[in-house]
Design brief:
Layout: H1 2-8, H2 16-23, H3 27-39, E1 43-46, E2 49-52, H4 54-83, E3 87-93, E4 96-103, H5 125-132, H6 136-145, H7 159-168, E5 175-178, E6 185-194, E7 197-206, H8 210-226, H9 228-236
């Protein structure tokens, strides 16, 4: 690991003797480890210099993804505690709705995914918020694969009604949904459009607390704005 760290510090590569010295290893030991790391793909050697290999770069990408998830999870947990409601983070990636992180508590549990979130984007605030950020072609592609269908008695009835609703959604305004996905639950989703990524942070509440929903969504949006720089970096990784 010390050898990998030493190589990572040298963008233009470094020879074995220098790496051994920096890692505090005897030269024969360093040579043996460097050959092993090259064989396993963690390093590659070119003209006597060692560089990070593809396997090490995969580790780096995995580390970046873990950092992203940790950053988002910390933010969601903070918002959950300050607002007193479950908070969700989701993105639209590769034509699919992906709920990547949820922060809830036993006293304020998240909505149970009783019908696949990916297939029922028309019914819940998360899906409606993400679909509202797509262009017409993207929405059509999604609805061709996942047609509108009744999930509860309050679910939107057909594609055209849904599309009109999505088109009328104000830019960067919360999307509100009341019992369309789960009876007894109301939800709000805040749009986050960063580059080509459609994303959202959402919250849910029992329907008997519906009067709290919009004020809580406004507060969530305000708190998101204060952390947008950090969140933007996390989403873009």
């Amino acid at each position: 690991m010390r050898l990998l760290e030493s190589v990572a510090r040298h963008e233009h590569g470094a020879p074995a003797k220098q790496l051994a010295r920096e890692a505090g290893l005897a030269l024969p030991t360093a040579y043996h480890l460097l050959r092993t790391l090259v064989h396993e793909g963690y390093l590659h050697r070119e003209k006597g210099l060692f560089f990070l290999g593809e396997a090490a770069e995969r580790l780096s990408r995995s580390g970046a993804q873990q950092k992203r998830r940790s950053t988002i999870a910390d933010a969601l947990g903070s918002w959950r505690d300050s607002i007193g409601a479950p908070v969700y983070y989701a993105v639209y990636r590769g034509g699919e709705i992906e709920v990547e992180c949820v922060a809830d508590t036993p006293g304020n549990p998240a909505v149970e995914e009783w019908a696949d979130f990916r297939e029922t984007g028309h019914a819940h605030a998360i899906g409606q918020c993400l679909l509202s950020q797509l262009d017409a072609e993207g929405r059509k592609d999604h609805l061709d694969r996942y047609p509108v269908r009744s999930v509860t008695p309050y679910t939107v009835r057909d594609d055209q009604t849904l599309i009109r609703r999505l088109e009328s959604t104000g830019r960067m305004q919360p999307v509100i949904e009341r019992q369309e996905y789960a009876l007894g639950t109301v939800c709000a989703a805040i749009p986050l459009t960063l580059g080509s990524t459609a994303a959202t942070v959402a919250l849910s509440m029992p329907s008997h607390q519906a009067e709290r929903l919009l004020p809580a969504a406004r507060r969530l949006q305000s708190e998101i704005d204060t952390l947008m720089g950090t969140l933007a970096v996390s989403i873009s990784i």
